[in-house]
Amino acid sequence: MVAERILFRLLPLVALLGLALRLRSSVSPAVSHHGLQETSHFGQMVGVSGVGRSLLQDDENDKHSEDEVALLVMKLNRSSLLPLPVLSEQRCAPTKGVWCAQFHGQTPAPRYLPKYYNKPCPNNCSGVGVCHAEYGMCFCPAGYGGPDCAAPRKRPCAHMGTDKRDAGWHNLTTWSHTRCAGVCDDDIAMCYCPPDTKYGRKEAPPGSPLGSPPLQAGRPLFMCTPGTDSEGRKVEWGGTPFPDMFGPAGWCNADKPNFTCPCRLDGLHGPLCDVVSEQVCPNQCSGRGRCNQGFCACQQGWYGVDCALRREGVAAEEQGLELLTKQPWLPAVRTHIVATEDPPLTPVRRRPYVYVYDMKPEYGSDLLQYRIEGSHCVYRTFKTDNTPDWVGYNAYSTEPVLHELFLASEHRTLDPEEADFFFVPVNVGCMLDVYGWNEVPRWPKDVHGPRSHGLSLMQREAQRWLNATFPWFARRGGRDHIWFNPHDEGACYVWKDVWPGVMLSHWGRTDFPHLSHTAYGQDNYSMSLQHPEHPGDWLDHTSRTHPCFDPKKDLVIPAFKPPRHYHKSPYLGAPPPAAGRDIFAFFMGDLRMQPGRDPDCIYSRCIRQTLYNLSISNHWKEAHAIWYGERKDVAGSGEDYSELLARSTFCFVLPGDGWSPRLEDAVLHGCIPVIIMDDVQVVFESIIDVEQFSVRILQRDIPNVVDILKRIPPTTVKTMQEKLHKVWHRFRFLGLRMARAEARKLLEAHQERAGGSAPRHPGAEYSIHAQDDAFDTLMQWLYSRIPSVHSGSG
Ligand SMILES: *[C@@H]1O[C@H](CO)[C@@H](O)[C@H](O)[C@H]1NC(C)=O
Ligand SMILES: *[C@@H]1O[C@H](CO)[C@@H](O)[C@H](O)[C@H]1NC(C)=O
Ligand SMILES: *[C@@H]1O[C@H](CO)[C@@H](O)[C@H](O)[C@H]1NC(C)=O
Ligand SMILES: *[C@@H]1O[C@H](CO)[C@@H](O)[C@H](O)[C@H]1NC(C)=O
Ligand SMILES: *[C@@H]1O[C@H](CO)[C@@H](O)[C@H](O)[C@H]1NC(C)=O
Ligand SMILES: *[C@@H]1O[C@H](CO)[C@@H](O)[C@H](O)[C@H]1NC(C)=O
Ligand SMILES: *[C@@H]1O[C@H](CO)[C@@H](O)[C@H](O)[C@H]1NC(C)=O
């Protein structure tokens, strides 16, 4: 303990010296079976002594590495990065109205100690849940419920019998994602080899304390379903021969099985699915808890969705030990939580003050725990050696990004009394991922209708819970509550009681009345639903009562894109393409034109398809250097999407089933957006003068697209490009540590490759700085909304 204590005192200094970085890269990639690193490297590296003011000031760390990068950049080419603009006129350049200048005009207030709470919880949450010291409420992991987490709260596999085994392989022929041929972990509806096999799951013996881990986890059987039974009879809902799964040489019995089942649960790797890595949790439980598939089981004295909140009277000194000694990979992904600084290290604060709710697990952590595909619901993951990585593709990843950014924000307050706004982190995007896997969860419980019903009703339940539990929802009629709606068609379906709040989405459709225009039936929010849980048709509570987007109170925000997505952008220091912007206009994306895929041409309002046919019949590529179509039409396999965008003068912004992040793609590459979707505002269009750097073409003018673009004079093109340089940074989120680190790495690489003569590209001064990024823009705009939100004047 004494040694640990000394270690702890050294940490800030280590961070200051930038050793933490080297520490991370020096640890061997070998990971023990539990995914925990030996601590010895750390001890060896620290040969200095000193006392720091507080732990985990990774802002220090940030600052330090930013200085380091600045030095490097200077060494390479003193002129390649301009200083960031400081004057409000420059920073607010192409914005609409006064929100930006107002924000900068406010007088900062001093930051006080965070507010501490100390409410007890029933039965200490039975040792499985986390006691929330502000709410006096147990937050339970999946599987446990009731006021003290002692009641079972199950998510059974499909067609599960009483013994957690399938109720009869021949008895029901229907396949389902969670139908289980082995034994079901019915906390989350995950399937494993049965206990009577060598690599089967062996639960903790009866009478063990609640939440005891299994004696043996077992090999997963998820998405591995039998095509035959033990007697060789055909099983209708599966495909894998019985011996491959359960025979002596099969997956469940052999040390070296002759057949392998998929291994996709978060934190499991390797051909035998027994290599364990860190799982993903909000802000990685701040290093003060164990991450269980998205649920943070916090250490005694700590609580909150990310274990960042300290119970009153608990000594702060304990923080961080585990983080840097046992889990040295966490600093790379953890974001520093300004609101919990004690003493305050960020001396001043600016409004808006935003309170971030911890939502009941039903609307939050459950959904993360229910994701049987590790890549669902998250924006990052950990590789076998615990290095963090982005998940390949998750359209809804702005949801976890926003949650972490709100938690970490300088604008966050721990005191709801003083809050200007309340952020409500309901995992509706995660629900979109999880919805098809199992009957549970459902809203209403007995309806398995379109996802839009489920999402809307889940939000409504969350709103009712807020209103029944806290005084804050009713205080301003819900107007100060912020909800994010990543659904393809944004907030169109939102319940009327939720709607008065601030709707954040990627879809700025303004016409009213409106009908769903998705080609994906599961998302059609215009399907009616009669249910005893609400009188009449749900449509009369939702989409018939409001537009999808109200430019006055709502905001269209960018989708999250990691820097690697725009790695060839001049704004990240990439050299301009040899031939300049030689592509006149560009679009690459899904067209759904294969026979039978979308016979009525509903997808993209038939815009993408109509343009494609025009491009073919008029030879756009040869005649006008307009590259348009799917990858096979546009680019050879080697051509890089980012590079193509950087080579283009105009880039089409067209809908998909609803939103599609094309405006972001264009702007982040300095390409002039050509927006074709009537009555739909693009990202920030209500607050930034998008007209200054884009072209909008009405759907009925699609046949004249080429003429319209050709008629734009080169001087106008140049002016638009110059505007883009001044505003591009507002269209990406750079507040995550992983994003900043990657942007730095890309910039460094570009600089190094240029051998010290990288040209100075206007706009590149923002390449590695989060100042005035998308999240800052949101905060700055929210500030301007305070008077009307608080007074109810709309
Ligand atoms: C809850 O746990 C804490 C810490 O272990 C202990 O001090 C407290 O007495 C417990 N309370 C109850 C009601 O069991
Ligand atoms: C069929 O399934 C039901 C449960 O759905 C079970 O009670 C019954 O025993 C099964 N019958 C056979 C013949 O497997
Ligand atoms: C695996 O071995 C079993 C015999 O135990 C055999 O029946 C089966 O066909 C083998 N499967 C594969 C994929 O080789
Ligand atoms: C919120 O709760 C208050 C007090 O119980 C009630 O009057 C009001 O109708 C509720 N509002 C909504 C939108 O649920
Ligand atoms: C969505 O559902 C409504 C009501 O059933 C239907 O009229 C409409 O055609 C559907 N929309 C699409 C795009 O399929
Ligand atoms: C595009 O061309 C194909 C082939 O000629 C045709 O089947 C399809 O209907 C056309 N689609 C549109 C939207 O013009
Ligand atoms: C830095 O880049 C500029 C072009 O932007 C070039 O003119 C200059 O020579 C470079 N400086 C050095 C020291 O290489």
Share of helical residues: 25-40%
Low-confidence stretches: 1-61
Q: What structural class do the secondary elements suggest?
A: alpha/beta
Mean pLDDT: 89
End-to-end distance:
58 Å
List each distinct ligand once.
2-acetamido-2-deoxy-beta-D-glucopyranose
Q: In angstroms, what is the radius of gyration?
A: 27 Å
Overall shape: it is globular
Which strands sit side by side, in order, in the main sheet? 18-15-19-20-21-25
The number of distinct β-strands equals: 31
Describe the main β-sheet briefly.
6 strands, parallel
How many helices? The count is: 22
Per DSSP, what share of the residues sits in E-state strands of 2 or more residues?
Answer: 5-15%
Task: Provide structural commentary.
The protein is of the alpha/beta class. The protein is 25% helix and 12% strand. The chain contains 22 helices and 31 strands. A six-stranded parallel sheet has the order 18-15-19-20-21-25, covered by helices on one side. A five-stranded parallel sheet has the order 27-26-28-29-31. Helix 4 (58-76) packs parallel to helix 21 and helix 6 (99-105) crosses helix 22. The longest helix has 19 residues, at 58-76. The model is unreliable at 1-61 (pLDDT under 50).
Give the arrangement of secondary structure elements.
Blueprint (H helix, E strand, L loop, with lengths): L1 H15 L2 H8 L13 H6 L12 H19 L11 H4 L7 H7 L3 E2 L19 E3 L4 E3 L3 E3 L5 E3 L29 E3 L4 E3 L49 H5 L21 E2 L5 E2 L12 E4 L2 E4 L3 E2 L5 E2 L10 H5 L22 E2 L4 E3 L8 H5 L10 E3 L5 E3 L7 H11 L3 E2 L7 E3 L4 H7 L16 H19 L2 H4 L5 E5 L16 E4 L2 E2 L20 E2 L2 E4 L17 E2 L26 E6 L18 H11 L2 H5 L1 E4 L1 H4 L6 H6 L1 E6 L8 H6 L4 E4 L4 E2 L13 E2 L8 H6 L3 H14 L9 H17 L20 H18 L3
Parallel strand pairs: 15-18, 15-19, 19-20, 20-21, 21-25, 26-27, 26-28, 28-29, 29-31
Antiparallel strand pairs: 1-14, 2-3, 4-5, 6-7, 8-9, 10-11, 12-13, 16-17, 22-30, 23-24
The structure holds 2-acetamido-2-deoxy-beta-D-glucopyranose (7 copies).
The site of one 2-acetamido-2-deoxy-beta-D-glucopyranose has 7 residues, from loops.
